[in-house]
Design brief:
alpha+beta, 5-stranded mixed sheet, 18% strand, binds ligand L37FFZMX, binds 2-oxoglutaric acid, binds fe (ii) ion, Iron_ascorbate_oxido_reductase, gibberellin 3-beta-dioxygenase activity
Length: 355
């Protein structure tokens, strides 16, 4: 039987003590970030704008391809996800994080687990704490949600399930648009399944809450990282905070556009396209006026499928830069090497060197 994402973390436990959970009242030293804590903390900010793509545009394949190549990210409108569902998932996220902390802790993520309440896994790579709390859903949220809402959990489970189904379909559509722009066809990706609809792919839904912060310029909501996914689709409430990084321009804030979704290329699509689509470094800043929620759908392949640069995208002049590896192996590398993972595996061109 193929393994699940949860299996990966069973063998790579991380210890993030619950004392890491902020009290969100003041900014103690343990939450105060400087460039020493993150080299890019104060990198320049730019007022460039991320592409905003209308998915009903007749030129959509070219637009998506261009955005993936130049930014590794873009915003989309006319994506077909009902606005009622976006309202519902935002409502669920708000209701969850507004629960008393003791209730949230009943569904705390265990050290070797992947689902549940806690701080982001990447917290273990930084000396300073992040001004946020999160909740990760992989598979059915039933058990966790029953602990959070003993009598209303079914309603919330339905929202998560509905959201996951819409996001999976949208992710498949975006994947074909992006790859189509490079001349990749359905027959080139066997693991997309007999109907090329990417049934069998796996995903995590990550709910994030960034409370109002007394000193936002010195705090960090979610530190700079790339996602270990093929693609991530993010819905942010009406409060800005997400920033993406481009070497040539610095940090660019992604303003919330009502009803739109943000899409970013993850490390596995970077590998699949042999680096043509860069996985984008991004982070979340906080503010002192409003609390912010974001809901990320982190989408990847079935965990045991080998991912490597697509034969169509390599030739003697552009040889494969990455070895073949599974999502499970990549997540294990990420759990140890974090943002260095892509460059580390680039040096291993033989998959048997990756455990
Ligand atoms: C599938 C996954 C990607 C993720 C690790 C996880 O197993 C579930 C949580 C995901 C998340 C969400 C917040 C940012 C991130 C870097 C993290 O710490 O946990 C991502 C992980 C990732 O993309 O590597
Ligand atoms: O909250 C955000 O805008 C970013 C969230 C994010 O990067 C993630 O969950 O992986
Ligand atoms: Fe992310």
């Amino acid at each position: 039987m193929s393994s699940t994402l949860s299996d990966v973390f069973r063998s790579h436990p991380i210890h993030i003590p619950l004392s890491n959970l902020p009290d969100f009242k003041a900014l103690p030293d343990s939450y105060t970030w400087t460039p020493k804590d993150d080299l890019l903390f104060s990198a320049s900010a730019s007022d460039e704008t991320l592409p905003l793509i209308d998915l009903s545009d007749p030129n959509v394949t070219t637009l998506v391809g261009h955005a993936c190549t130049t930014w590794g990210a873009f915003q989309i409108t006319n994506h077909g996800v009902p606005s009622r569902l976006l309202d519902d998932i935002e409502f669920l996220t708000g209701s969850l994080f507004r629960l008393p902390v003791q209730r949230k802790l009943k569904a705390a993520r265990s050290e070797n687990g992947v689902s549940g309440y806690g701080v982001a896994r990447i917290a273990s790579f930084f000396n300073k704490k992040m001004w946020s709390e999160g909740f990760t859903v992989i598979g059915s949220p039933l058990q966790d949600f029953r602990k959070l809402w003993p009598s209303h959990h079914l309603k919330y489970c339905e929202i998560i399930e509905d959201y996951g189904e819409h996001m999976q379909k949208l992710a498949a559509k975006l994947m074909w648009l992006a790859l189509g722009s490079l001349g990749v066809e359905e027959k080139d990706i066997k693991w997309a399944g007999p109907n090329s609809d990417f049934q069998g792919t796996q995903a995590a839904t990550q709910l994030n809450h960034y409370p109002i912060c007394p000193e936002p310029d010195r705090a960090m909501g979610l530190a700079a990282h790339t996602d270990s996914t093929l693609m991530t689709i993010l819905y942010q409430n009406n409060t800005a905070g997400l920033q993406v990084f481009r070497d040539d321009v610095g940090w660019v804030t992604v303003p919330p556009v009502p009803g739109s979704l943000v899409v970013n290329v993850g490390d596995l699509l970077h590998i699949l396209t042999n680096g043509i689509f860069p996985s984008v470094l991004h982070r979340a800043r906080v503010n002192h006026v409003r609390s912010r929620f974001s809901m990320a759908y982190l989408w990847g392949p079935p965990s045991d499928i080998m991912i490597s640069p697509l034969p169509k995208l390599v030739d003697p002049l552009q040889p494969p830069l990455y070895p073949s590896l599974t999502w499970k192996q990549y997540l294990a590398t990420k759990a140890t090497h974090f943002n260095q993972s892509l460059s580390i595996i680039r040096n291993y061109l033989s998959s048997d060197q990756i455990s």
